[in-house]
Amino acid sequence: MQPKIFASFASTHKQLLEEELRERVNKLVAPSVVKEAMLYSLEAGGKRIRPLLLFATLDAFGLDTKKGLLPAAAIEMIHTYSLIHDDLPSMDNDDLRRGKPTNHKVFGDAFAILAGDALLTYSFQLIAEIRDEDAHATTKLALIQALSQASGAEGMVGGQVADIAGEDKDLTLSDLEYIHVHKTGKLLECSVVAGAILAEATEEKIQRLSKFAYHLGLAFQIRDDILDLEGEEERIGKRVGSDAVNKKGTYPSILTLDGAKAALSEHIELAKAQLKETGLSTHMLEAITNLIETRDH
Amino acid sequence: MQPKIFASFASTHKQLLEEELRERVNKLVAPSVVKEAMLYSLEAGGKRIRPLLLFATLDAFGLDTKKGLLPAAAIEMIHTYSLIHDDLPSMDNDDLRRGKPTNHKVFGDAFAILAGDALLTYSFQLIAEIRDEDAHATTKLALIQALSQASGAEGMVGGQVADIAGEDKDLTLSDLEYIHVHKTGKLLECSVVAGAILAEATEEKIQRLSKFAYHLGLAFQIRDDILDLEGEEERIGKRVGSDAVNKKGTYPSILTLDGAKAALSEHIELAKAQLKETGLSTHMLEAITNLIETRDH
């Protein structure tokens, strides 16, 4: 597939998604400050990788991707709430995200926590409000079940807990994988699985797509760690020594930089192999996979 | 109805609920610290007024109250998460709740925030997992819709935002009612409405029960403010002067103590009138109403 076909797919769907997010928050009958805080982080940009995975999965099944607008918005709200809470002083204490002040820097800690809570809560309402012609009642419930499991204690929240609990400890590869599979992997996986649920796919296809997304999620995280390290090298203008490579709890620190690159390739190959086995028309999902392998930010 | 019949109804259902809460958290495959933090606050006691309202509503329709176990657990999880987040240093900064150290005092701010997030997320999963013989798929979706609306930006979270935004400001009675109707009222109302939804009640009955719960919620809050004031009098051993009565943003401060007592009686009467109009067998709901009118803690 030509990259420009995917670029157009991505920009069209990003725009649709962003309009939906804005509209859904604007229509809330709520104090304006909480709506502003919700929108501030929803509109802070980002690659919208989770929504795109969902749309691309619907595309693989030959379905109208618009069916996925509300679940995609719900997933992006959950991702956004997790960033707001993770940035808080008592968590990662980050002042900047994507070059802009973090939510609590603008709205204060209390409103940041509450804006996160509101986004998380609203996400489930959005799925309950999918039009009946876009999904059966049992399909909507399956989406809610998958989304809450992927984002709660057994998924994303559990990963964040393990990440904080593991700070300043020597992590094994298996500790590190637990953190990433849960903290970022589960919601990425759920984005693909949600598309398959909407398509009323067979259990076998859901399993394949879920494995595809599992490997994609790990590849995403390994690439992140590699970019961090290479970014650091660029910043200081020379190869970083063992200190930076050994920065705890990253793939390069455990596997070496070359080992991390090899692991990245391996997960990308495994992801593509699962995709192929689905027998679906997975051009868009492949394009996202290539993007994740080679992304430079 | 004899008070002891309600007392037995309440203690039986509290026990069932508490077992369900414990079981549901214990079965999570998640880092133990987040499960401990979730259970710590779920098991900190409390009147379980929201679950009891739900069970009492099912009883009014002559239904098996066990049908309500999962939605009741979901509502109690949402109530509990809201207490954990409200107690945080950046919100009300409370060190004690019901005589025990607050969640963040025991587990730290980060795990307290995450335990709250996990409880909120899990609550929607519980509803999606109600057995098909206990509720149709469309009924479960109606529950999720009602619960997310009652607890998000348009409900409880919106009320908490307004409460924080109104701190140290002169509140009118209408400001104060907005805060209470949203911060505590909406979830109380939802507890009753959830029972009616489970009973597949007519829209007219749902509306009546919703109005009943609206007045009950306001009565609950007014009684709270009166208890605070009288408790303060008891603590200092004499009638409190205008300073305490004028403590900002309470019913006695706006209506005087006598005015607050009159408003309490009025909301109790309005609540009972709505109940009567339902034509249901509302003994248990009446017992809860009497309890709220006369409670001393």
Automatic annotation (TrEMBL), chains A, B:
**Which Pfam families does the entry mention?**
polyprenyl_synt
Q: Which Gene3D superfamilies does this chain map to?
A: Farnesyl Diphosphate Synthase
Q: Name one GO molecular function term.
A: geranylgeranyl diphosphate synthase activity
Enzymatic class: transferase
Q: Which keywords has UniProt assigned to this entry?
A: Isoprene biosynthesis, Magnesium, Metal-binding, Transferase
Alphabetical list of InterPro entries matching this protein: Isoprenoid_synthase_dom_sf (IPR008949), Polyprenyl_synt (IPR000092), Polyprenyl_synt_CS (IPR033749), Prenyl_diphosphate_synthase (IPR053378)
PROSITE patterns hit by this protein: POLYPRENYL_SYNTHASE_1 (PS00723), POLYPRENYL_SYNTHASE_2 (PS00444)
Q: How far does the signal peptide extend, from start to end residue?
A: none
Keyword Calcium assigned to the entry: answer is no
Q: Report the EC code(s) recorded for this entry.
A: 2.5.1.1, 2.5.1.10, 2.5.1.29
Q: What is its cofactor?
A: Mg(2+)
Per the similarity annotation, which family is this?
A: Belongs to the FPP/GGPP synthase family.
What's the protein called, per UniProt? Geranylgeranyl diphosphate synthase type II
Q: Which organism is it from?
A: Cytobacillus eiseniae
